[in-house]
Every structure is written in C-alpha cells, then in structure tokens.
C-alpha cells in the first residue's frame, strides 16, 4: 500500500477533462449485468479517467478489492478476478465509486489505511497520514536505536507528539518501541476520538495518553508539565504556506480539516509554538523531529538562532523520497525546567 499511497497523494489537482463518450452517462445507474472483478475495475477506471479523477485505475482497484475483502487488487485470490460479483457487492462498489466521483479521497471511502504496517481507521475530516511521514517515523526509530537504553525508571523514552491526527505517528512509534510511552496532543476533537479508537484497535491504549489541547494558546505547555519531562518531541504540524492552500487538490480542500494543513503566512504559526513548548518540556539533550515544507529548514534555522533562550539547535535536515529537504532534527542543550518526574502512572486517559 506504501507505493500506491505515494501515487494517490498527488498534492496538485489532476487534469479535468469534460464531455467525452460518458457525457450523458449517469454514474449512479445500476450496472445491468453482473461483472467480474477485472471487468469492474476496468469499467470504473474508465469512468474515473473520463471524469478527470486522479489515479483512476488505482482508485478503482482499491474499491473493488476492498469490497471483496482484500487490501489491494494484486492480493486478491486469482480465482476472484474472473468471478461475478453479487448484486450487493456491485451496489457497494457503485456507492463507493460515486463518492470517488465527488473527489472523496480513497482513504476516507475505504475507512482505513495502512501506515508503517498498521491498519488505521480513517474518517473525515481527520488528516490522512502521508507516505513521507513514514520517513519521519523511520528517522525517529533510527535515532532511538542509537541512544543508550534505560532512559528512565520505565526503561523507554517518553515521547510527546503534537498534532496526532489519526494517531499514525504515535501508534507506529509505540508499536516499534515496546518500552516507550507517548503523550499525543491535538486540538481537534475528531482527531482525539480517532486516535483513541485506533489505539484501542491496536491494543496500544495502555502506553498512550491522548490530550485535547491547542498548543498555540498561552501557557499551553503548563497543561503538559505534570506528565514529566519528555525525551523526544515529534510532530507533523500544519506547515503549508497559507497562499499555497488554494493550489491543493479538491480531495484535500473539500474533505480534510484546513486546520491540519494551513500553517499561516510562512507556514510557521504552529511550528514556533511547538518549538517554544518543546524547549520547556524536553529533558536536556532531548530531541525534536519535525516534518516541514522544503523552505522551512532555512526559516526555522534562522528563527532558532534569533531565540537563544530556547536552547534549541538544528542538528540535521533530511530529504524525502523526492529529494526535498522535509525533515528536521533539533536538539535541546540547556537546563531542564522543573517538572515532576514520572507522573505517568497516576494520571488518567483524557
Ligand atoms: C498535518 S496533521 C498531522 C496528523 C498526524 N500526525 C499525521 O501525520 O498523520 C496536523 C495535526 O495537527 C493538529 N493541530 C493543528 N493545529 C494545532 C494546534 N494549535 N494544537 C494542537 N494540534 C494542532 C491538527 O488538528 C492535525 O491533526
């Protein structure tokens, strides 16, 4: 799903063709005869293509595969490729395809998506995890593997994720760092609910605390102080420059929460709050890992130099699979603020 995920996430709108042989065709009309999975994929791929729906064939394959109980068309048993679908299955494909014709992202239509090998529930308007964010998680895991273990009494890192969305980053870190614990913060109630649900689905709820909080509010850090100093802060914040928002694909603009994407004039509105908050909550030598726009490493680097009191230093920048500088590692080298050690066990889930 990783490769298709990359293809499905073209940020810019696809070609919009009008008219053509399907001009008078009613997409919601029931198909008159039972079709095989292969025929159905070709049929809807042609419809999507004609209507200018991006990733026409992939969308069609995902929908048909999902209705037949598989994650990808390629993973369907070959016997199912040529077998006719039942009328109920056909209707399901038809309904899901009509959502795709309205530019709903495939991830919302299927109601699930894979991230770092975890199957997560997806629901609009909660941000759909992007494939490049898997690279951010990989970087955090690499760095963690190099750190001395037994970081505290519980033996693993205490991680703070700001802007958890569906829980993709937090839950994949938890599943791959068995000793870790995570505080996952988001300002959107829908995101908090989905992270709860995904944590329970994956039976990771015991090691995650999910907190509804807007980190741009004054003294927001004070709400997190009782959890104890953290070893690591990770975030894929809203970082899109406001003027770039209008160029996003209809799939994004119509279905995903703009507050998950829009970072303000220079995409830094939430980032600077995360950095200020991280400086207060991190242990000395603690790390921050951020996913950003390619213009941000320069902007954030100079902003950090203008804020010496934060004691934060840009350590490294990494490129994404397209070769763009998209990930930042920042380290704190300064005193740890007073906060209770290991407040974790006594506190309740939000
Ligand atoms: C780009 S999404 C990332 C979601 C998830 N971490 C992922 O990578 O799939 C950014 C998230 O930050 C949250 N967010 C935006 N502004 C915030 C704020 N001021 N305080 C806390 N969370 C915020 C949004 O609700 C959204 O869920």
UniProtKB/TrEMBL annotation:
<dbReference type="InterPro" id="IPR002295">
    <property type="entry name" value="N4/N6-MTase_EcoPI_Mod-like"/>
</dbReference>
<dbReference type="Pfam" id="PF05175">
    <property type="entry name" value="MTS"/>
</dbReference>
<protein>
    <recommendedName>
        <fullName>peptide chain release factor N(5)-glutamine methyltransferase</fullName>
        <ecNumber>2.1.1.297</ecNumber>
    </recommendedName>
</protein>
<dbReference type="InterPro" id="IPR004556">
    <property type="entry name" value="HemK-like"/>
</dbReference>
<dbReference type="InterPro" id="IPR002052">
    <property type="entry name" value="DNA_methylase_N6_adenine_CS"/>
</dbReference>
<dbReference type="GO" id="GO:0005739">
    <property type="term" value="C:mitochondrion"/>
</dbReference>
<dbReference type="InterPro" id="IPR040758">
    <property type="entry name" value="PrmC_N"/>
</dbReference>
<dbReference type="InterPro" id="IPR029063">
    <property type="entry name" value="SAM-dependent_MTases_sf"/>
</dbReference>
<dbReference type="InterPro" id="IPR050320">
    <property type="entry name" value="N5-glutamine_MTase"/>
</dbReference>
<dbReference type="GO" id="GO:0032259">
    <property type="term" value="P:methylation"/>
</dbReference>
<keyword id="KW-0949">S-adenosyl-L-methionine</keyword>
<dbReference type="GO" id="GO:0003677">
    <property type="term" value="F:DNA binding"/>
</dbReference>
<dbReference type="InterPro" id="IPR007848">
    <property type="entry name" value="Small_mtfrase_dom"/>
</dbReference>
<feature type="domain" description="Release factor glutamine methyltransferase N-terminal">
    <location>
        <begin position="39"/>
        <end position="111"/>
    </location>
</feature>
<keyword id="KW-0808">Transferase</keyword>
<dbReference type="GO" id="GO:0102559">
    <property type="term" value="F:peptide chain release factor N(5)-glutamine methyltransferase activity"/>
</dbReference>
<dbReference type="Pfam" id="PF17827">
    <property type="entry name" value="PrmC_N"/>
</dbReference>
<feature type="domain" description="Methyltransferase small">
    <location>
        <begin position="159"/>
        <end position="246"/>
    </location>
</feature>
<keyword id="KW-0489">Methyltransferase</keyword>
């Amino acid at each position: 799903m990783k490769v298709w995920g990359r293809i499905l996430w073209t940020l810019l709108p696809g070609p919009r063709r009008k008219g053509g042989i399907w001009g008078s065709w009613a997409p919601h009309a029931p198909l008159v005869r039972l079709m095989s999975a292969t025929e159905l994929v070709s049929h809807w791929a042609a419809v999507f293509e004609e209507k200018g729906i991006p990733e026409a064939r992939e969308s069609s394959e995902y929908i048909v595969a999902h209705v037949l109980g598989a994650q990808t068309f390629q993973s369907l048993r070959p016997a199912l490729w040529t077998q006719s679908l039942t009328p109920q299955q056909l209707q399901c494909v038809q309904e899901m395809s009509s959502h795709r014709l309205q530019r709903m992202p495939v991830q919302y239509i299927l109601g699930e998506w894979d991230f770092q090998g975890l199957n997560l529930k997806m629901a609009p308007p909660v941000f759909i995890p992007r494939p490049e964010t898997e690279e951010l998680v990989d970087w955090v895991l690499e760095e963690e593997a190099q750190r001395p273990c037994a970081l505290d009494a519980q033996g693993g890192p205490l991680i703070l994720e700001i802007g958890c969305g569906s829980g993709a980053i937090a839950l994949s870190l938890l599943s791959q760092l068995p000793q870790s614990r995570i505080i996952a913060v988001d300002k959107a109630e829908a995101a908090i609910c989905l992270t709860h649900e995904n944590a329970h689905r994956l039976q990771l709820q015991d090691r995650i605390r999910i907190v509804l909080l807007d980190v741009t509010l004054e003294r927001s850090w004070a709400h997190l102080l009782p959890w104890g100093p953290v070893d690591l802060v990770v975030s894929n914040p809203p970082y899109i420059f406001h003027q770039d928002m209008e160029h996003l694909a209809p799939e994004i603009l119509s279905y995903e929460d703009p507050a998950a994407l829009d970072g303000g004039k220079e995409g830094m509105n939430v980032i600077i709050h995360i950095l200020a908050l991280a400086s207060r909550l991190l242990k000395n030598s603690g790390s921050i890992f951020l996913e950003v726009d390619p213009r941000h490493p320069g902007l954030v680097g100079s902003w950090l130099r203008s804020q010496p009191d934060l004691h934060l230093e840009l350590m490294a920048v990494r490129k994404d699979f397209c070769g763009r500088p998209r990930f930042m590692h920042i380290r704190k080298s300064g005193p740890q603020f007073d906060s209770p050690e290991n407040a974790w066990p006594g506190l309740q889930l939000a």
